[in-house]
Task: inverse folding
């Protein structure tokens, strides 16, 4: 692996835009999926652009435990790293106990089911390049509904715990109807920091669906990995991201890396490429900062408001 010193440095103008960015979607290791960097290396690399913080996401385990175990190695790291828990079958699915443990240990995020969501399993039932560990990990489908079709008591309790801790809740890779039910329940129980991941990837949310999810207080996340030429799939043009920004507005849009996987660009390289592309296509510097610095800081609980200060 190359060292931080020989990686690409941003231009002064681009560094000014990116300083203070918060990545809510860093996929560093350890993980059952192969990762290019570990959490400590990701923290040091984030300093290339003066990032304010990174949030470590794993589909399979509570990442707060990783960070606490690496505490000595992270003591002098330049970029604070935070963790949370994804509600897949590895932690018991929609499991209030797993959420309570993550919160007690300092977790800042609860992700809805991702690799255990029926929508995800259906989307990746063919060879599309997404790494698979499911058959080895005995994964099963997890749902926010009980057998009668109502939002389960466990889901309600999870939203109550998230609200009390005032941390972020995401819909993971759940289908649209499940996310609508989850977000409505979350809003009812006082959750303030809600995030919808990649509406046009796996989730399959229409423009009308997104509007409804926004009404529950959600922000909409788009991932740099989907627009970077170094990632083979889905390989979307930057114009697609610009269309989303213009449709929803920068005040409710979040742009994160979703990088750190083996074979893909580093998260920081995602920022360097996508931010420059947005600027080159006429997106204002203040709007890039709103989406990469301010909205993200709010969702991670570093700010009480997403408004630029």
Result:
């Amino acid at each position: 692996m190359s060292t931080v010193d020989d990686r690409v440095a941003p231009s002064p103008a681009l560094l000014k835009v990116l300083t203070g960015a918060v990545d809510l979607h860093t996929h560093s290791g350890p993980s059952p999926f192969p990762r290019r960097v570990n959490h400590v290396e990701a923290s040091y690399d984030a300093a290339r652009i003066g990032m304010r913080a990174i949030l470590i996401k794993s589909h399979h385990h509570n990442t707060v435990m990783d960070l606490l175990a690496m505490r000595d190695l992270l003591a002098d790291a330049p970029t604070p790293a935070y963790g949370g828990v994804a509600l897949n079958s590895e932690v018991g699915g929609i499991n209030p106990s797993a959420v309570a443990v993550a919160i007690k240990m300092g977790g800042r995020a609860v992700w809805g089911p991702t690799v255990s969501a029926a929508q995800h399993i259906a989307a990746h039932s063919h060879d599309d390049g997404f790494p698979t560990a499911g058959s080895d990990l005995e994964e099963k489908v997890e749902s926010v509904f009980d057998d009668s079709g109502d939002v389960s008591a466990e889901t309600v309790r999870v939203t109550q715990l998230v609200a009390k801790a005032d941390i972020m809740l995401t819909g993971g890779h759940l289908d649209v109807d499940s996310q609508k039910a989850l977000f409505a329940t979350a809003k009812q129980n006082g959750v303030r920091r809600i995030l919808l991941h990649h509406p046009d990837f796996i989730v399959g949310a229409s423009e009308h669906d997104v509007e409804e999810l926004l009404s529950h207080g959600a922000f909409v996340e788009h991932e740099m990995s989907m627009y970077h030429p170094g990632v083979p799939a889905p390989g979307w043009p930057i114009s697609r991201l610009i269309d989303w920004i213009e449709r929803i507005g920068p005040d409710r849009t979040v742009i994160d890396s979703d990088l750190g996987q083996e074979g893909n660009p580093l998260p920081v390289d995602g920022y360097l490429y996508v931010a420059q592309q947005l600027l080159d296509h006429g997106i204002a510097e203040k709007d890039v900062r709103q989406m990469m610095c301010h909205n993200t800081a709010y969702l991670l609980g570093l700010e009480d408001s997403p408004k630029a200060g």
